[in-house]
Design goal:
CATH architecture of the largest domain: 3-Layer(aba) Sandwich
Helix content: 25-40%
CATH topology of the largest domain: Aldehyde Dehydrogenase, Chain A, domain 1
CATH superfamily of the largest domain: Aldehyde Dehydrogenase, Chain A, domain 1
CATH class of the largest domain: Alpha Beta
Distance between the termini: 67 Å
Shape: globular
Largest sheet: 7 strands, mixed
Strand content: 15-25%
Radius of gyration: 23 Å
Strand order of the largest sheet: 16-18-19-14-13-21-22
Structural class: alpha/beta
Oligomer: single chain
């Protein structure tokens, strides 16, 4: 069993409330920690104030070295961390290793960016009153950062908040998902071991009362949250005058045009729709296929889905594990039922569902001709369910994509540059991937969305802008 203690200002603490960590595969207890409530917030804030001062005394090089050392500690302990992620999330061991690799890169990119936080000069004398004056600005730490991370990538999405914040010189208080607190605590341990001033990091598992107290605290300057649109809206209302970085999800679309590479598109559709049991914010949820190639594409897709092996995620040969819990399975099942009642057809071809013990599985599911008013089409499913709809012209697809609340990323398979440019120019999304799925992401790119998909961008170079303030300087000569 994996036992970890919360970290408060670099110190390991115990509370009077233990938190069991459950393996979604068979609902067995695999670890435990302690929950922290709102009564600990003031102490965490006071520690973070000390951490802010200590970070300000470090050079850019010293902060960079701490982040590089953290990445090396992650690399050194990769297998232990990966197995922890499997047991707390339910993703496969193959997927967990990829997550650790990505977190290693995220800390490396953060280390690099810590050494290039630039200011800029500008011509004061461009204004009539600017003669004989010299102007420039520098970037300084914004202050205490509260980072609220989700269950699906507990290590790497926490790294995307912590790494750039430390690089910018900001202390961080992390509230991980109560379902997946273990790997974020491990990250905190490695940061301290790497030489981070201990007051600059807290990892506090808890529930809504803790999150509310943290996000509303007057001394917090930045709130970075990854999660649902509903909670993101709540945070935006209660946070007050703070900088917000919100990554709130999607119902991402893949478009397969009549001239696209169907084989590659089908392979990407399976990878992007069913990896991590679809519990990825840029998981492929909706596929729009040109009517001329729909039948051929469906045959390819059904063949590839039939090869997905489902079972115990710790098994090296398994391709897809369970969803996080039974409540989420039941929610999606009700959405599928609604879609079928409204005329959708279900195609469920997974054959390799072996050794399933728990109740948290949903077999890979294709729905064809889904009503655009159904929940499974409009909302974020966060499940191994893919909608497939036919289309005739490009404008039709762009209009449907832009009608929704979300705008994170879109993927388009086409060999026609004019078609590609139509999507690039007209889709209201944060990222357009041509001949790639919407689920493609590397950890240094600007990542974020339009509309209810969020505010701000992740990727260390871009996140640092949110974790710093501009300090302007004017010198009269």
């Amino acid at each position: 069993m994996i036992v970890k203690k919360p970290i408060l200002g670099g110190e390991f603490i115990e509370t009077n409330q233990k938190l069991d960590v459950i393996y979604p595969y068979d609902n067995s207890k695999i670890g435990e920690t302690y929950t922290v409530d709102a009564s600990y917030v003031e102490k965490a804030i006071e520690k973070a104030k000390i951490g802010l001062k200590k970070l300000s005394e470090l050079s850019s090089y010293e902060k960079s070295e701490i982040l590089f050392k953290t990445s090396e500690l992650l690399r050194k302990n990769k297998e232990e961390i990966a197995k922890t992620i499997v047991y707390e999330v339910g993703k496969t061991i193959k997927e967990a290793r990829i997550e650790v690799d990505r977190a290693i890169e995220t800390f490396k990119f953060s280390a690099e960016e810590a050494k290039r936080i630039y200011g800029k000069t500008y011509p004061m004398d461009a204004h009539p009153n600017g003669k004989s004056k010299f102007g420039f600005y520098i970037r300084v730490p914004a202050g205490i950062v509260v980072a609220i991370s989700p269950f699906n990538f507990p290590l790497n999405l926490t790294a995307h908040k912590v790494g750039p914040a430390i690089g910018a010189g900001c202390p961080v208080i992390v509230k991980p998902s109560e379902k997946t607190p273990l790997s974020p605590i491990m990250m905190g341990e490695f940061l301290i071991e790497a030489g981070l001033p201990k007051e600059a990091i807290s990892i506090l598992p808890g529930f809504g009362d803790l999150g509310k107290a943290l996000t509303m605290h007057k001394d917090v300057r930045v709130v970075s949250f990854t999660g649902s649109k509903m909670v993101g809206e709540l945070i935006a209302k209660q946070a007050g005058i703070k900088k917000l970085v919100l990554e709130l999800g999607s119902n991402s679309a893949l478009v397969v045009h009549k001239d696209g590479d169907l084989e590659k598109a089908a392979m990407k559709a399976v990878q992007g729709g069913f990896s991590m049991a679809g519990q990825v914010c840029i998981s492929i949820q909706r596929i729009f296929v040109h009517e001329e190639v729909l039948d051929k594409f469906l045959r390819l897709l059904e063949e590839k889905i039939s090869n997905i092996k489902i079972g115990d995620p710790i098994d090296e040969t398994v391709d897809m594990g369970p969803m996080i819990d039974k409540t989420q399975v039941e929610r999606v099942q009700s959405w599928i039922k609604e879609a079928i009642e409204q005329g959708a057809k279900i195609i469920q071809k997974a054959k390799n569902a072996e050794h399933i013990k728990g109740t948290n599985y949903l077999l890979p599911t294709l729905l064809v001709d889904v009503n655009k008013d159904s929940a499974i089409f409009r909302e974020e499913a966060f499940a191994p369910v893919v909608n497939i709809n036919r289309y005739k012209d490009v404008k039709e697809v762009i209009d449907v994509v832009n009608e929704g609340d979300y705008g994170l990323q879109i993927g388009v398979y086409t060999n026609d540059i004019n078609v590609a440019m139509e999507f690039i120019k007209n889709c209201e999304v944060g990222g357009v991937n041509i001949n790639e799925g919407p689920n493609f992401r590397v950890d240094h790119m600007p990542y974020g969305g339009f509309k209810y998909s969020g505010i701000g961008r992740e990727g260390p170079a871009f996140a640092i802008e949110d974790y710093t303030e501009i300090k302007n300087v004017v010198i009269s000569l």
